[in-house]
Write a structure and sequence with these properties.
By secondary structure, the protein is mostly helical. The protein has a domain of about 90 residues. Helix content is about 65%, strand content about 0%.
């Protein structure tokens, strides 16, 4: 990617979406809507009331928390690894890239597994818990080495070393 520059890399990564869209359009014929039998006990919500149903509110809360965690990791991982663990910026950036690529494949694999698993709630709880435990293990297992501050190695200023004057 370094040979084509950042603009070429951005265009190349963006072009990956074109075959994906074409595959979706090509296979869209299999997405046939099947009629479901309505439950007679309760009238289904419609319009804006649909947005305030329990499943939609739970999904909204899940994605808000998930997005907050992802944004925090993306925003601070490089800084934390550099300042706390003494990694170079290049290595810390590579770690973030590996995390994001791993997240991509984890999402794809998780979707595939969820399609074949009838217990969605248990699967979501287990996979989210596994991700949290892995992040915790990385944070606890990688103990930071103590770093000397730039200020601690300086000698005191002449005015700070001078004895107080008697008046």
């Amino acid at each position: 990617m370094l040979l084509i520059g950042w603009r070429g890399s951005l265009i190349l990564v963006g072009l990956i979406g074109v075959p994906v869209v074409l595959m979706i359009l090509w296979q869209s014929g299999i997405l046939v809507e099947e009629a479901r039998q309505a439950l007679p006990a309760k009238k289904p919500a419609a319009g804006a009331g649909l947005l305030l149903t329990r499943p939609i509110l739970f999904l909204c809360a899940f994605f808000v928390v998930s997005s907050m965690a992802t944004a925090g990791i993306q925003s601070w991982l490089i800084t934390v690894l550099h300042e706390t663990y003494g990694m170079t910026l290049t290595t810390a950036s590579s770690v973030l890239t590996a995390y994001l690529v791993g997240s991509l494949f984890g999402i794809l694999a998780g979707g595939w597994i969820a399609d074949r698993n009838p217990r969605h709630v248990i699967f979501v709880v287990l996979s989210t818990s596994l991700g949290a435990v892995l992040l915790l293990v990385v944070g606890v297992a990688s103990r930071p080495r103590p770093r000397r501050s730039a200020c601690s190695s300086r000698p005191a200023s002449p005015s700070a070393r001078a004895a107080p004057r008697a008046t």
